[in-house]
Write a structure and sequence with these properties.
Distance between the termini: 89 Å
Order of helices and strands: HH
Radius of gyration: 28 Å
Helix content: over 70%
Protein name: Flp pilus assembly protein, pilin Flp
Number of helices: 2
Largest sheet: none
Organism: Salipiger marinus
Mean pLDDT: 88
Keywords: Membrane, Transmembrane, Transmembrane helix
Strand content: under 5%
Structural class: mainly alpha
Number of strands: 0
Low-confidence stretches: none
Shape: rod-shaped
């Protein structure tokens, strides 16, 4: 039994798995953060472009009735 405990403590295979799980979770969290930032910026840009097109249309053709 004492031999089993010594071997178990010396075995590092599980530690590598834990490292990969933590690294994968960090990459996923960063990807979600990047996606959220890009989505928000894209929505703001599309809204600004739509407003600019509407303003230009009003300037060229007058206000809609």
């Amino acid at each position: 039994m004492l031999n089993f405990i010594k071997n178990f403590r010396a075995d590092e295979d599980g530690a590598v798995t834990v490292d990969w799980v933590v690294l994968t979770a960090a990459v996923v969290a960063m990807a979600i953060g990047a996606y959220t930032t890009i989505e928000t910026s894209a929505d703001n840009m599309i809204s600004a472009a739509g407003g600019a097109v509407a303003a230009e249309q009003t300037t060229l053709f007058g206000a809609a009735d």
